[in-house]
């Protein structure tokens, strides 16, 4: 936008004050001003212009007025119109922009603005403060402020971030966050040679109270227990809810006796009665304690020690406290021996790499295999976590990681040679590997030595690894991405990384941590979190992979919610290379009904506890082209649904254990895409009405039935389900297209950002070269390939100051002693005459010899004396 030139006063023209305003300002009537006004009014987001040194509002669009909660701004200085901004640091930002004369960008800045009820409300805004130069180019005419309100996006991101690291019921840190904090606390304690106490709490008789008094009472007790523990433990302690009725508590720097006293106070506080509907409810707790460094020196060993002590406390009875008193010396010695054995096993080549496939939920075929190291010691498998941690402790992790990488790349090349050219191999990087300075070069060398294209390699890294040094991570990952290697963020959600930081990382694949999949799809909260992670990953242009998928119901949920790939024992566990080759050759894939865009044979499930009714219905419908499944009870029907994709369900009402309506209510929650019909000889109006209103059933039909009418109702149900399925498929196709577009945009943004950085570095380097050449004391000139002078430093301009313009003249005008044809590819020395003075000079060609880009000429010495000739 062209800046509007102010008058001599530094302000735009002003006219008579408007209603309720202290002097309304208007921009001069010119075409540019009208264009500016149109832009102000229709600009996306809010826009305001502050004129002159007093920062008077010259213009503000409606969005800005709504944001600050004031209608009349024009003609008022900023400090008068919005006095509250000074205390929030906004005026300081403006002063900085005025002082520097440079634009300032602020992202998601929190500001308090007047609310509709007369109070204040917190808003988050992205905005830019940009100085507008005066029309004559001298000074600043004012400031342009523009931006957008991002409150909803910011709050949503923070709520999702909170849900990934905290327990939704008690608002306490969850197990993953507590374990991470414990690991950092252990590092601090080790450096300071201090103590650390860990306690594991388990409520006594809570499950019985929860079963008898109801879930609502149980949740209320859990929240109250959390508050009591926090109050007694104090603000210095760290409290978390691990799961169910188990809590974890950590004290840093306290003696065991002091921690034991405070824990005993917690036990007594928990034992105080809880009120439930006017009645006292009593719950006690058992506690197991562990101490660093006596009980263990790592987070895992300390948590294990606390669990051992908790088990002993439970055996002792309700409300008991026990400390871990098992000597760790034997375990530490065994771990040391395990490290020695690992070194020998690696030298003898006893380790193996197993491979676990990841299947594409669109094609159903394997697209990636993850390489996982395995070690059989004395006929028993060493747990992978133990193997990795021992290798890290013994300094073998770098060597082990490089061996796994090369082995996996070599195997991937073999698979490419037998026809699986699009298959990718994924390799995990440890924290120590990622911190190595030669990481990029070692990966490039492994790819070069094995012949595997970089696009076929996926490197998996964890959140905590990347967040330890984010700047280093960003730099390293961009370097690997530039090489063509794909990058995967493993175990997403188990760490504590900021979602804002996630946008900085050039990640191609997001892998959902296994802890989120355990309760999917049965638990609505877990399903909502997984769906949110998938949506967020796609919006950032990433593919999303779910690991630890063990059931068909999980796979079906992930497919319906746009997850891209699945990995887990439902597909295949980790297997040796030969077995994985057979798996690939066999063409094993997902069943058609689990694919994102599935169109399968119509399937009908009949549920009735009378076999004669099931037989009659099968005979009636056998020629309708349906795939017919049967079950004798609601529980059996749920098992059938867990193993088969069903379109329409026809269920009896009165059945033992579970009524038809209750069965279909469960089905609606687990399999919402099914069409559900009740066929019963008993009419319970209220139950049926409630079920219909809640959406649990599509129709209620009575026995005995009319054959033609029943066929028609079932056919109608299939058509209804088909229409819903088509709508779902269309929605998935649109979301898939949007995901692919987001991925392309994400990659394009990364490329553009990298190109901008390279251009900026090139420009800076060029400026430095020019500045250095200008200050060289020796006269230096450069010509193009036809002999025109295109560059001369300060010393050369001084030498030829009496000649006239130097740039643009022919080189032979300045150096008449040069031959008519300058030699290609070779340089020479010559004598330059300037009046009665003579100077030694040299000419050197620029370019690659055969394709000259011109010549470089330097006057290399002082004036020659006559005696020297």
State the low-pLDDT regions, or none: 1-30
Radius of gyration: 37 Å
Distance between the termini: 67 Å
Would you identify the CATH H-level superfamily of the largest domain? EAL domain
Indicate the CATH class of the largest domain: Alpha Beta
How many structural domains in the coordinates? Answer: 5
Please state the structural category: alpha/beta
Q: Sketch the major β-sheet.
A: 8 strands, mixed, barrel
Shape: globular
Mean pLDDT: 82
Fraction of residues in helix: 40-55%
How many DSSP E strands? 32
Biggest sheet, strands in spatial order? 13-14-17-18-19-20-21-22
CATH architecture of the largest domain: Alpha-Beta Barrel
How many DSSP helices? 29
Strand content: 15-25%
């Amino acid at each position: 936008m062209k800046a509007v030139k102010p008058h001599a006063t530094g302000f735009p023209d002003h006219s008579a004050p408007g209603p309720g305003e202290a002097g309304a300002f208007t921009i001069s009537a010119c075409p540019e001003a009208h264009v500016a006004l149109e832009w102000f009014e229709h600009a996306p987001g809010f826009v305001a212009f502050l004129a002159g040194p007093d920062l008077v509002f010259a213009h503000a669009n409606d969005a800005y007025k709504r944001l600050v909660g004031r209608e009349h701004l024009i003609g008022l200085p900023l400090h008068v119109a919005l006095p509250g901004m000074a205390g929030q640091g906004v005026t300081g930002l403006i002063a900085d922009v005025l002082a520097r004369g440079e634009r300032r960008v602020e992202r998601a800045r929190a500001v308090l603005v007047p609310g509709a009820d007369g109070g204040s409300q917190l808003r988050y805004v992205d905005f830019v403060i940009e100085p507008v130069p005066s029309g004559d180019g001298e000074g600043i005419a004012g400031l342009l402020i523009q931006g957008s309100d991002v409150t909803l996006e910011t709050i949503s991101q923070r709520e999702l971030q909170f849900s990934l690291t905290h327990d939704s019921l008690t608002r306490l840190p969850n197990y993953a966050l507590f374990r991470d904090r414990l690991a950092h606390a252990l590092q601090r304690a080790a450096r300071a040679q201090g103590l650390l106490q860990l306690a594991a709490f388990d409520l006594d008789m809570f499950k019985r109270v929860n079963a008898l008094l109801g879930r609502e009472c149980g949740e209320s007790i859990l929240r109250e227990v959390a508050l009591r523990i926090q109050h007694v433990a104090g603000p210095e302690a760290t409290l978390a809810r691990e799961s169910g009725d188990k809590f974890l508590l950590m004290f840093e720097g306290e003696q065991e006796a002091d921690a034991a006293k405070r824990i005993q106070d917690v036990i007594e506080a928990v034992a105080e009665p809880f009120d439930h509907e006017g009645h006292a409810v009593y719950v006690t707790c058992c506690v197991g304690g562990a101490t660093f460094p006596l009980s263990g020196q790592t987070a895992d060993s300390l948590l294990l020690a606390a669990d051992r002590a908790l088990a002993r406390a439970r055996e002792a009875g309700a409300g008991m406290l026990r400390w871990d008193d098992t000597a760790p010396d034997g375990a530490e010695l065994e771990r040391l021996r395990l490290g020695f054995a690992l070194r020998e096993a690696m030298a003898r080549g006893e380790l193996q790499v197993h491979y676990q496939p990841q299947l594409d939920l669109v094609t159903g075929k394997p697209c990636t295999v993850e390489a996982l190291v395995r070690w059989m010691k004395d006929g028993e498998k060493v747990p992978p976590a133990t193997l990795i941690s021992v290798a890290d402790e013994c300094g073998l992790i770098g060597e082990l990681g490089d061996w796994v990488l090369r082995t996996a790349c070599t195997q991937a090349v073999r698979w490419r040679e037998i026809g699986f050219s699009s298959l990718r191999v994924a390799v995990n990087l440890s924290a120590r590997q990622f911190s190595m300075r030669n990481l990029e070069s070692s990966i490039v060398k492994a790819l070069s030595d094995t012949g595997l294209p970089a696009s076929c390699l996926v490197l998996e890294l964890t959140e905590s690894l990347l967040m330890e040094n984010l700047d280093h991570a960003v730099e390293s990952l961009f370097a690997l991405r530039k090489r063509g290697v794909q990058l995967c963020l493993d175990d997403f959600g188990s760490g504590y990384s900021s979602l804002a930081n996630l946008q900085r990382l050039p990640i191609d694949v997001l892998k959902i941590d296994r802890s989120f999949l355990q309760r999917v799809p049965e638990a609505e909260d877990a399903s909502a979190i997984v769906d949110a992670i998938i949506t967020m990953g796609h919006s950032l242009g990433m593919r999303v992979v779910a690991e630890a998928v063990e059931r068909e119901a999980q796979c079906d949920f992930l497919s319906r919610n746009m997850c891209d790939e699945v990995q887990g024992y439902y597909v295949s566990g980790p297997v040796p290379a030969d077995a994985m080759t057979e798996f690939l050759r066999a063409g094993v894939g997902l069943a058609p009904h689990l694919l994102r865009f599935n169109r399968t044979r119509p399937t009908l499930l009949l549920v009735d506890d009378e076999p004669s009714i099931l037989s009659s219905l099968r005979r009636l419908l056998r020629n309708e082209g349906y795939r017919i499944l049967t079950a004798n009870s609601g529980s059996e029907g749920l098992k059938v649904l867990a193993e088969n994709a069903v379109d329409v369900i026809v269920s009896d009402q009165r059945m033992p254990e579970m009524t038809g309506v209750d069965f279909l209510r469960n089905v609606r929650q687990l399999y919402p895409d099914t069409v559900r019909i009740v066929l019963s000889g008993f009419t319970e109006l209220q139950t049926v009405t409630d079920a219909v209103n809640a959406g649990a059933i599509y129709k209620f039909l009575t026995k005995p039935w009319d054959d033609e009418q029943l066929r028609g109702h079932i056919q109608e149900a299939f058509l209804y389900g088909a229409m819903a399925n088509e709508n779902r498929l269309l929605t998935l196709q649109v979301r898939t297209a949007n995901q692919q577009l987001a991925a392309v945009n994400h990659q394009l943004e990364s490329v553009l950002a990298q190109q901008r950085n390279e251009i900026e570095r090139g420009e800076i380097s060029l400026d430095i070269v020019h500045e250095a050449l200008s200050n060289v004391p020796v006269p230096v000139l450069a010509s193009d390939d036809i002999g025109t002078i295109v560059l001369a430093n300060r010393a050369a301009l001084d030498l030829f100051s009496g000649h006239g313009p130097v740039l643009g003249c022919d080189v032979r005008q300045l150096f008449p002693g040069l031959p008519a044809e300058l030699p290609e590819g070779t340089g020479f020395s010559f004598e330059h005459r300037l009046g009665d003075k003579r100077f030694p000079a040299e000419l050197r060609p620029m370019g690659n010899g055969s394709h000259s880009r011109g010549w470089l000429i330097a006057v290399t010495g002082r004036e020659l004396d006559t005696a020297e000739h």
